Amino acid sequence: MRKLVAMTLLSLTVASGAVAQMDHTSMDHSSMPMAEDMVHAPATLNAIGDGTINVSHGPIAEIGWPAMTMDMPMMEGVTLPEGMQPGDEIIMMLGQDHEGMYAIGGVAAAE
């Protein structure tokens, strides 16, 4: 968990300069979930598709999901960390879109 927090803080620090120079006035962020609304769950990355990942995860009590293997769509703009490959243990961050469907809002390597 400490590694995840450190990685998040580092990425925010590094990205802040680039983000400050972007013009966000025309971007619609209304359908993007906030970080505090994300559900974090450990999983195994099985396969990487075009805009999806296949994962196996245990039960996710926060959203009432049993353990399963499934294809998960990734939210627009979400990418996997460099070097991540099938077989890796991950922490997936799940958020809901405006229709209530869950999608991957972020992925980090598990400790």
From TrEMBL:
InterPro entries associated with the record: CusF_Ec, CusF_sf
Signal sequence bounds: 1-20
Gene3D superfamilies per record: Copper binding periplasmic protein CusF
Keywords: Signal
Pfam family, one: CusF_Ec
Protein name: RND family efflux transporter MFP subunit
The organism of origin for this protein: Donghicola eburneus
Lineage: Bacteria, Pseudomonadati, Pseudomonadota, Alphaproteobacteria, Rhodobacterales
